[in-house]
Amino acid sequence: MSGYQFNKKQFKQEVAGNVKKLYRRTIEEASPKQVFQAVAYAVKDVIIDEWIATHREYEKQDAKTLYYLSMEFLMGRALGNNIINIRAVKEIREVLDELGFDLNVIEDQESDYALGNGGLGRLAACFLDSLASMGYPAYGCGIRYKYGLFKQKIENGYQVEIPDNWLKDGNPFEVRREEYAALIKFGGNVRVECDSSGRNHFIQENYQSVRAVPYDLPVVGYGNNVVNTLMVWDAEPVDTFNLDAFDKGEYNNAVEQENLAKTIVEVLYPNDNHYAGKELRLKQQYFFISASIQRAVGKYKAKHSDLHKLPDKVVFQLNDTHPTVAIPELMRILIDEEGFSWDDAWAVVTKCCAYTNHTVMAEALEKWPIELFSRLLPRIYQIVEEINRRFVEEVRRIYPGGEDKVRSMSIIYDGQVKMANLAVVGSFSVNGVAALHTEILKKRVLKDFYGMMPWKFNNKTNGITQRRFLLHGNELLADWVTGKIGDEWITDLPYIKKLALFAGDEKCQQEFRNIKYQNKLRLVRYIKENNGIDVDPRSLFDVQVKRLHEYKRQLLNILHVMYLYNMLKDDPDMDMVPRTFIFGAKAAAGYRIAKLTIKLINSVADVINNDPSIKGKIKVVFIEDYRVSNAELIYAAADLSEQISTASREGSGTSNMKLMLNGALTIGTMDGANVEIVEEVGRENAFIFGMSADEVIACETNNDYNPMDIFNNDQDIRRVLMQLINGSYAPENPELFRDIYNSLLNTRSTDKADTYFNLKDFRAYDEAQWQVDKAYRDEAWWAEAAILNVANSGKFSSDRTVRQYIDEIWHLDKVEVSL
Ligand code: GPQ
């Protein structure tokens, strides 16, 4: 497969040489951190030739290229993944052994690249891995945030956010590309000039500008010599304190420009599924979009003279609405800089741009106040106004008198610029991220658009890369699978179906259980080291790891733990399978109720973990700083995967897929991609409960749910809820969890209560949990079901997802790279 031969001896020399060059030390004297840097540079040397060869090949073939535009790329660590993908794990492990170092320890020295919040950013990272591994030309385009997603510390049970200074030791893999710097303009005003032929020219004046400088990061394909590029933009001031500005008395402007450059890429906004509407965020969006589009157009023009044919060679995928200014920015470049007519420009733009929607939650939809938008991006705003004017005209033409349609589909309405509407209007493709989610978009959220332009709508069910989440994250299971069925699954996950043959075999079940046990021991050690909690590896590992959000219902999980604990207090001999409830979640820094839920989980953990009377039957662990690197350990060790969002709210979910791939069974609602997981593995190998999406939506429409009825009629639930406000878990401050109590029941009649139907689904959830308990006792059944989960995970590879994007949206040219 791979063209090159890994040269161990040379690699070893290079590592030692790097330590010497970088740190003036011998390898014996080097610290693990220094060895990490030295190894990373040596790996980069291997990669760099493939990287050059790949791009030479793309040029030669003049291949159609994807630009995946995303505010977030949650890459995790690079070294281990790169070593896997150049297929040199064994050799490099041996080299390090010989040098007296453990590869795992060296990998642990690297910071995660946490340039994302959660699923949306991780999806982008998985797509890049699949694109490179399948040999397709693609750039990830994003921002080189100085600070990524905050690191989470738990202090006294509360989340504390610590800045993520991930670049402090430098990044050995990145390459600064000064030569591709671009100028980005903000603010000022637009002057219109009419030339002798009567054509208007739009000139932005009195603006502030920043220089965008791209850094390239290699994205290594698996064993195919392909190395793609994640291009992340840094901001720099434009000729600092230039004398002109001083001369004109524009000292303030010069200082402001310098500040703008400093602040714009400073930090990733920590919100997930929530739009905060901050001016700086819009600046970030336009900054990286203008830079990326300029680069794409520039690259095209270097080879081609006719920009009308741009869609033959370039496609932009908008990862949610965050990059939607790409649409008017490309219009601006074509019209203002390239002399296109409006119609010609629009024809090009609407053939180049495609939009992915990731959520139906109203609070995540971006809407910018006109005042802000037009002040920051005056020319872009003019273009959006014109797009809107023409679009509304068309709506009125198709639907005479359809003012309701105008209202729902207008891009500018009610003093706001609605980015989702702009994205739909300016794209040739609109996709959701799971079948159910796409149906909800068509039937509800984007219903009028679907009615008007049904051809744009399509589904692309998410996927994950098996190379990181099985091959890298779970070596034992990966080796076992390969031993049974060969290694095709690494590049063709549906092959893993062959494992089903072994699911019923007793010996195989034993081997599988043993691997799970080893992985649980690894996680137990991690938890002991990082949380100081002792966990019984023989207990059932019940895992909910994902962003903390009310709709994901970590609250339902912990309320249920409180309920179980009450049962155990009443009857310490109650017959139940010992369980460890494992949570991992970051809450947006400003999301009060989410942060309070973390405190609740930790308070419940404190009480339960320190109560000897329940004989260790339940333990609760909150894993600090859940991130890509420790996620790999957690997935490998999980028995049960909690996917319990309020039906209709989770776009897709992807931890559901990663956990399935690692042999965890799902307890979940019929939401997002859970629906498709159950379709693949069979309902009998999962624990499905609760309201359906239709029921949830009907209940909301009819407004006929009153959680107080449940509170009044179900004494077990009432007891749990009372414990939120009677000091059971906060003796020093009984009011501590009052806001959670109120969110469920609410008392002040204006607010909604239990928006996410925790109480309504509680009994069904409890029942499903007892089915889990019962099923887990049957070791053979559980092992078989777990193996069947692995065996039926084939659909959920991001290779499949990317293949569908390529065939149905991107139409990229495949490239072979030989060295
Ligand atoms: N998602 Cl809108 C995010 O992670 N952040 C966001 O801001 C939005 C969506 C998630 C979504 O909640 C999950 O259901 C998806 O699996 C994931 O995007 C990838 O599509």
Output the keywords.
carbohydrate metabolism, binds ligand GPQ, Rossmann fold, alpha/beta, glycosyltransferase, 819 residues, six-stranded parallel β-sheet
Short description:
GO terms for molecular function: glycogen phosphorylase activity; pyridoxal phosphate binding. Allosteric enzyme that catalyzes the rate-limiting step in glycogen catabolism, the phosphorolytic cleavage of glycogen to produce glucose-1-phosphate, and plays a central role in maintaining cellular and organismal glucose homeostasis. The chain has 819 residues and is α/β, with parallel strands linked by helices.
Can you walk through the features of this model?
With 819 residues, this protein is α/β, with parallel strands linked by helices. Among the domains are: 246 residues, Glycogen Phosphorylase B (Rossmann fold), CATH 3.40.50.2000; 269 residues, 3-Layer(aba) Sandwich (Rossmann fold). 49% of the residues lie in helices and 15% in strands. It has 33 helices and 25 strands. Strands 1, 4, 7, 8, 11, 12, 13, 14, 18 and 19 form a 10-stranded mixed beta sheet that branches. Strand 16 and strand 17 form a beta hairpin. Helix 11 runs antiparallel to helix 12 and helix 21 crosses helix 24. The longest helix has 30 residues. The chain is globular, with a radius of gyration of 27 Å. The mean pLDDT is 96. It binds ligand GPQ. The site of ligand GPQ has 19 residues, from helix 6. Ligand GPQ binds next to helix 6. Its cofactor is pyridoxal 5'-phosphate. Its main location: cytoplasm. It comes from Lientehia hominis. GO terms for molecular function: glycogen phosphorylase activity; pyridoxal phosphate binding. One of its GO terms (biological process) is glycogen catabolic process.
